[in-house]
Specification:
alpha+beta; 58% helix; 212 residues
Length: 212
């Protein structure tokens, strides 16, 4: 009887260890396939560290929320570009503001600056409207989250060479299924850190100005 118990426990332990090993092996294989498609110099790719965290249907783990938050980020980036262009045009307009008997060159520069300001103003308002709409979607999706575990957030640190041949270290975040065979979403830390992603999610859940 004692021998049977030991055999039983041994089988359980081996099964658990095999499952853990399988998850890690599957993740590395899946990531390897992804790197082959995304890296400029795949031959230089060297895994450094891989970490696993539970992925749940919550505000930080939901893939639909992720997609909408990333679109908010892109809209924010475009808004910032339009705002920067607007400010430069306003400075130009101040320099060439019409005075008594202005030159044709000054008048032309002033008109061009005014046109750029008007264009950027429209663009900025469009981006604000887009962000507000996407934020409304995020808040709706967050209410449907049930907190259920459905996969793994895999943080993968690696070394590779850039297009210029320089060695660099990168980190990718992967939203994977329970078996680490499928990638639902992923992003590059150079584009957005996990801390900043969570901040974007939290900001997206705040009421829009128009809703206050």
């Amino acid at each position: 009887m004692k021998t049977l118990k030991l055999l039983f426990y041994s089988i359980i332990i081996i099964s658990i260890l095999s499952a853990c090993s399988s998850k890690e092996d599957n993740a590395l294989e899946t990531i390897n396939n992804n790197m082959f498609k995304t890296l400029y110099d795949f031959k230089s790719y060297e895994p450094i560290e891989t970490k696993f965290d539970s992925l749940k249907k919550d505000k930080y783990g939901d893939t639909l929320i992720f997609s909408n938050v990333m679109m908010i980020k892109y809209a924010m980036d475009d808004f910032d570009k339009a705002k920067e262009e607007f400010e430069k045009a306003r400075e130009t307009a101040e320099i060439y503001r019409p005075t008594y008997n202005p030159s044709s060159f000054s008048s032309k520069k002033y008109i061009e600056a005014q046109e750029t300001m008007n264009k950027c103003y429209v663009e900025m308002n469009d981006y604000i409207a887009i962000m507000d709409s996407l934020s409304t979607i995020v808040r709706t999706l967050e209410k449907k989250c049930d907190g259920q575990f459905y996969g793994w957030l895999v943080t993968h640190k690696f070394r590779c060479k850039t297009k210029g041949g320089n060695s660099t270290i990168g980190t990718y975040y992967y939203f994977m299924d329970k078996n680490c065979r499928n990638i639902y979403r992923y992003f590059d830390e150079d584009e957005l850190s996990m801390e900043n992603y969570k901040s974007l999610v939290d900001d997206s859940l705040k009421p829009n100005e128009s809703d206050k």
